[in-house]
Design brief:
The chain contains five helices and no strands. About 25% of the residues are buried. The chain has about 160 residues and is an all-alpha fold. The chain is elongated and about 65 Å long.
Length: about 160
């Protein structure tokens, strides 16, 4: 196995953003990380809502659980929207927000004394970083095609 074969072996893990097909793969990996967040929150919401035991006489408890349920739905809708923006529109800001979500999830996992899914969460952070790299490369290409100088801030 030569040096070129070894570099091809890790293309899925850290795509080269100078190549258009690899850049698209990096953006798609960022979208997959956002999908991970959305689906994991949906799963948690499903598990928690199926085990809720709401006492009928306590109206404050019902209102509190309704508010928490709505907040949790927003926590699901936001990553879903960000994922769609990364996947369809190559949105750099959305990719950064997905990366922030993933890093927060890993930090909460560490604070919660670890998890069986810790390796998958670290992998999702790497995928989110690739999404940021891919969308940043797309943004630089769009700026150069519009004739804007590369020294201009990209945010």
């Amino acid at each position: 196995m030569g040096k070129e074969d070894a570099s091809k072996e890790y293309k899925w893990f850290w795509p080269d953003t100078s190549d258009p097909t690899q850049r698209k793969k990096a953006v798609d990996q960022g979208a997959w990380a956002g999908l991970w967040i959305t689906l994991s929150f949906c799963f948690i919401l499903f598990i928690n809502s199926s085990t809720l035991e709401i006492p009928a006489a306590n109206i404050e408890s019902i209102v509190l659980q309704f508010i928490l349920f709505r907040l949790f739905v927003y926590i699901i809708v936001i990553p879903g929207f960000l994922t769609w923006r990364v996947w369809k529109e190559n949105c750099f800001i959305s990719a950064i927000l997905i990366l922030i979500y993933m890093v927060c999830e890993v930090i909460l996992t560490i604070m919660d004394s670890g998890s069986d899914l810790f390796f998958l969460k670290i992998l999702a952070v790497v995928l989110a970083m690739n999404g940021v790299r891919g969308t940043l490369a797309e943004r630089k290409i769009r700026l150069s095609q519009q004739g804007l100088p590369q020294e201009q801030p990209i945010l």
